[in-house]
Design a protein that fits this description.
Length: about 375
């Protein structure tokens, strides 16, 4: 009898997991929740041993490891290789420096089956970059080439990634990230009237994400400084280089036009930001593999302006649900923001509705989990 959903034991290995910041952890959590609902027994292995939480969360267990070695999101989960022997399948979320080689080692020693989701490339600096190169040379090729399947959230991104050369093309599975389309919705008309009172004629551009260099908030701030004073910027996110961006805003003399809201952990609060904004801008010029924020905005009927790079451009049907701008070009970004605000209210509304329709057709977690289960079953029963 084939081993199907109910009773199969799965381990997810991920460097960050909520409440720790990171889109990779958010994706992992949504997958685990969906898999538990389908009858899998799921454990999550991650870092951040200092977080004091119950191990059991909504039917799955989270093992948060204390480690002697940790650089940012990299670190070693002690004895991970031995722990993986008891599972029917291991799901590694790549990259996880310091620990992902143990998944490959479990296959070598115990014939453990594993699948990899390739989320993104990582570009480190200084000593970290030196250590990264050594680790890459020793392990990354082995980890990727020995996986049963390699999942990508965007084929274009994967084909332009650093380690694509190590991946067997026959093993690639494209499975888009999803969004909770029931939570991320447009406000009813009564609340939209309140929105107009709140904005008082201002045009609001939204940025959502960790404040790290490759997301290019600096480019968006520069563009805002050159645009009409009626256009304001709402920044949702924190940490990392927040001080640098606040200094940039101050130096440009636009403190009255840029609001730093800080980190937002609640999806119910996050949907309010998408509804308050006229559009979301995703200005990343590298490192972005999908952009969860773009599909959350689309689901909320908030049009998007997005950088024309692999991993992002596929979210936009240019002119239908948003606009593409030339990556790294502040001038083109300014032009696209101006073009958007030149649209009529009806045109903007239709753009938002088109985005919502695309989400319902392509980007729901239900569709994502169903495809994930099909791949799990095929590997477990092989």
């Amino acid at each position: 009898m084939s081993k199907k959903l109910s009773g199969a034991r799965i381990a997810h290995i991920v460097s960050t997991f909520p409440p720790t910041l990171g889109g990779m952890g958010v994706v992992c959590r949504e997958e685990v929740k969906g898999l538990v609902g389908s009858g899998y027994e799921v454990d999550v292995y991650t870092l951040d041993g200092k977080i004091k939480e119950e191990d059991v969360e909504r039917g799955y267990r989270v093992f948060r490891s204390k480690t002697w070695f940790k650089f940012g999101d990299a670190g070693a989960i002690l004895a991970l290789c031995l722990k993986l022997r008891k599972y029917d399948l291991v799901h590694l979320h790549f990259p996880f420096y310091g620990s992902m080689h143990m998944v490959w080692l479990a296959k070598v020693l115990f014939k453990q089956k594993y699948i990899v989701t390739y989320h993104m490339d990582v570009e480190l600096k200084g000593v970290k970059k030196f250590l990264q190169k050594i680790y890459d040379k020793l392990f990354v090729g082995k980890v990727l080439s020995n996986a049963e399947k390699v999942i990508t959230v965007d084929r274009g991104h994967l084909e332009n990634s650093t380690f694509f050369k190590y991946i067997d093309k026959e093993k690639i599975v494209e499975n888009f990230n999803g969004v909770d389309e029931k939570k991320f919705v447009k406000w009813p008309d009564a609340m939209n009237q309140e929105k107009e009172k709140f904005k008082a004629g201002k045009k609001t551009v939204l940025f959502v994400g960790n404040l790290i260099a490759f997301k290019r908030l600096d480019l968006l701030i520069e563009a805002i400084s050159e645009l009409d004073e009626s256009i304001t910027l709402l920044v949702v996110g924190g940490g990392y280089e927040e001080k640098r961006y606040k200094k940039q805003v101050k130096d440009l003399g636009i403190e009255n036009r840029v609001v730093f809201e800080g980190r937002c952990d609640s999806s119910s609060n996050m949907v309010n930001y998408y509804n308050l904004a006229d559009c979301l801008v995703v200005p990343s010029d590298a490192g972005e593999s999908f952009s969860l924020t773009s599909v959350e905005a689309m689901s909320s009927e908030c049009p998007i302006i997005i950088s024309d790079i692999p991993g992002l451009r596929s979210r936009v049907e240019n002119g239908l649900n948003g606009l593409l701008f030339k990556s790294g070009s502040g001038v083109d970004l300014m032009e696209k923001i101006n073009s958007f605000f030149a649209l009529s209210d009806d045109e903007k509304e239709q753009m938002g509705k088109a985005g919502r329709e695309i989400v319902l057709n392509k980007y729901t977690w239900e569709k994502h989990i169903k495809k994930l289960e099909e791949n799990y079953e095929g590997i477990i029963n092989k």
